[in-house]
């Protein structure tokens, strides 16, 4: 017994002086009846510390024993308890005697984590309590407890699968729950392989607004119209989509009327005449816009009067006002079209859009946001940066073709280019990386990685017309499929 225990202690790298001290101790052993609960060796529980029984060491494993026990003089009726605690794995062992159960076994667990085979050396007395019974009793006292520092659930994540053919219907179903604003939303397109790392979400929001705006009134700027299939819940869901897309990904529909959005965020009273008339002119068709501008300037011709009469008739008036009353009449017409008719929708949007009042505290901040988000050829071209500092001659030539192509694009084409590269038709990234490959033939094509806002283009174009033709064909297809993981 003594030799086995000594070999065991040496195998655990117990200092020699400690072993010699244990051998030199001559304290008389005590019987079970004389042993008290305080003499039993225990380990620290999750919420209590027995400093008198253990001393922290730098070793991964700590051997604990009662210095008052004579390990070498024990015999007969005496009980020797040695517990081996794996500090590295934070296994917590509590003495059974602390729970009122007499100790009957000596167990020396040899952990395989330290390169030793797992085993148990047991010394039994006449009355044996099985290790399984002891484990059951101990586990009832060491139930898991939640630490104050480790508690708290991680931010919830909700996933949604969207069909491209019915983006509006699918996304509205997701946003009918008001709590979605506070969740992390990950989306994917059905039958497409892309994993959402912002790029897919940007594409979903952009596709939603593209389809939604088709049902709205107006031209360059549009205003939602009342629909028989939309009630308060649906309109509030649309408002949440506007807020969530802007806050999470910087995506917003710049074609949605500025005056309408200002009214939704800050109330109808915050819309002044300048904002109202600007939005109204963009709301009109080019022909109607020209007629109204000439009417306000007092330079109308006969053909303009006919166009203006058609506009007033559509707005509910069947005659032209006098010239000295033309401006107030047009302002009233603008107020009716932009604010009065969609007033119910404005009221539904007010609740979700109040969440952005801190980011957009006044009407000027809203107008500034519209200006920053709007894509133009020059702005988009300034986003492109090569991933390599040093370019070959072919790469530099191709990059020059790209800059020229994008800079000369009108707003519609600039939005297409931006959407192809980032998933969004508005500016929502600081840069777009450009890298090159040497593909030729049928495999030659530009590839966009929307999540990382990176454009990979071949550097094998022989001329700018060839470059322009290939890009025009891709953008005019109006079909983008995400199939890169």
TrEMBL record:
Residues 1-28 have a biased composition (Basic and acidic residues). The keyword Hydrolase does not apply. Residues 235-468 form the HECT domain. GO terms for molecular function: ubiquitin-protein transferase activity. Residues 148-160 have a biased composition (Polar residues). InterPro entries: HECT_dom (IPR000569), Hect_E3_ubiquitin_ligase (IPR035983). SUPFAM superfamilies: Hect, E3 ligase catalytic domain. Pfam families: HECT. Residues 1-64, 139-161 are annotated as: Disordered. The gene is LOC117553061. Keywords: Transferase, Ubl conjugation pathway. This is Uncharacterized protein LOC117553061.
């Amino acid at each position: 017994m003594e030799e086995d225990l000594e070999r065991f202690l040496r195998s655990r790298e117990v200092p020699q002086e400690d072993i010699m001290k244990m051998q030199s101790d001559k304290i008389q052993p005590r019987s079970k009846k004389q042993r008290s609960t305080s003499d039993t060796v225990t380990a620290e529980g999750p919420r209590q510390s027995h400093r008198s029984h253990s001393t922290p060491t730098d070793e991964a494993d700590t051997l604990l024993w009662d210095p008052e026990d004579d390990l070498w003089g024990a015999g007969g009726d005496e009980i020797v308890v040695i517990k081996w605690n794996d500090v590295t794995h934070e296994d917590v062992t509590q003495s059974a005697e602390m729970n009122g159960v007499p100790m009957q076994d000596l167990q020396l667990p040899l952990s395989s984590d330290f390169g030793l085979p797992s085993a148990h050396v047991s010394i039994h007395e006449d009355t044996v309590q099985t290790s399984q019974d002891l484990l059951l009793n101990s586990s009832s006292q060491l139930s898991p407890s939640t630490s104050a520092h480790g508690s708290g659930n991680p931010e919830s994540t909700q996933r949604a699968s969207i069909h491209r053919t019915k983006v509006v219907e699918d996304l509205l179903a997701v946003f009918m729950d008001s709590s979605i604003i506070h969740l992390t939303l990950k989306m994917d397109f059905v039958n497409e392989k892309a994993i959402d790392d912002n790029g897919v979400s940007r594409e979903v929001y952009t596709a939603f607004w593209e389809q939604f705006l088709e049902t709205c009134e107006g031209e360059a700027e549009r205003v939602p119209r009342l629909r028989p299939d939309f009630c308060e819940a649906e309109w509030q869901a649309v408002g949440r989509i506007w807020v969530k897309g802007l806050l999470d990904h910087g995506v917003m529909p710049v074609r949605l009327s500025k005056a309408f959005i200002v009214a939704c965020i800050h109330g109808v009273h915050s819309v002044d005449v300048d904002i109202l008339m600007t939005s109204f002119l963009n709301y009109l068709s080019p022909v109607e816009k020209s007629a109204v501008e000439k009417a306000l300037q007092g330079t109308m011709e006969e053909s303009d009067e006919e166009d203006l009469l058609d506009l007033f008739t559509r707005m509910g008036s069947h005659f032209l006002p006098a010239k000295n009353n033309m401006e107030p009449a047009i302002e009233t017409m603008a107020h009716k079209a932009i604010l009065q008719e969609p007033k119910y929708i404005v009221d539904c949007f007010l609740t979700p859009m109040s969440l952005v009042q801190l980011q957009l505290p006044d009407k000027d901040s809203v107008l500034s946001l519209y200006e920053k988000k709007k894509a133009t050829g020059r702005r988009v071209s300034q986003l492109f940066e090569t991933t390599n500092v040093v370019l070959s001659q072919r790469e530099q030539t191709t990059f020059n073709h790209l800059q020229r192509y994008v800079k000369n694009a009108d707003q519609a084409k600039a939005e297409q280019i931006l959407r192809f590269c980032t998933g969004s038709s508005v500016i929502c990234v600081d840069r777009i990386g450009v890298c090159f490959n040497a593909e030729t033939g049928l495999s030659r094509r530009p590839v966009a990685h929307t999540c990382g806002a990176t454009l990979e283009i071949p550097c094998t174009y022989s001329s700018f017309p060839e470059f322009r033709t290939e890009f025009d064909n891709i953008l005019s297809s109006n079909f983008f499929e995400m199939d890169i993981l």
